[in-house]
Amino acid sequence: MAIVINLNLELESLLLSKATSSLEWEEQDLAEFIAGIQKGLEDFGAGRCRSFQEFAEEQLCKYQLSANS
């Protein structure tokens, strides 16, 4: 069963513009996400990484947390 909605041209144009803007934003967001993953993999491959232990210790100091919390 199909549902049909009739819109005036102004509203249809506004909705199309909003949908286009949202899709462009999502496409840009995805591209930035993929670029970040690729950079992380390149850094890891080049040895620019650290252990989780080092990361955890830094975060504990940075946020003044105890290791037991």
Describe this structure in words.
- The chain has helices at 9-45, 52-62.
- With 69 residues, it is mainly α.
- It has one domain (10-62).
- The longest helix is centred in the middle third of the chain and has 37 residues, at 9-45.
- It is elongated.
Offer a quick outline of the entry.
The protein has helices spanning 9-45, 52-62. By secondary structure, it is mainly alpha-helical. The longest helix has 37 residues, at 9-45.
Features:
69 residues; mainly alpha; 70% helix; 0% strand; elongated
Strand content: under 5%
- Which stretches are poorly predicted, pLDDT < 50 over at least 5 residues? none
Secondary-structure-based class equals mainly alpha
Biggest β-sheet strands, sense, barrel: none
Helix count, DSSP H or I runs of 4 or more residues = 2
How many independent structural domains? 1
Mean pLDDT: 95
What share of residues is helical? 55-70%
Q: How do the SSEs run, as a string of H and E?
A: HH
Report the end-to-end length measured between terminal Cα atoms.
Answer: 56 Å
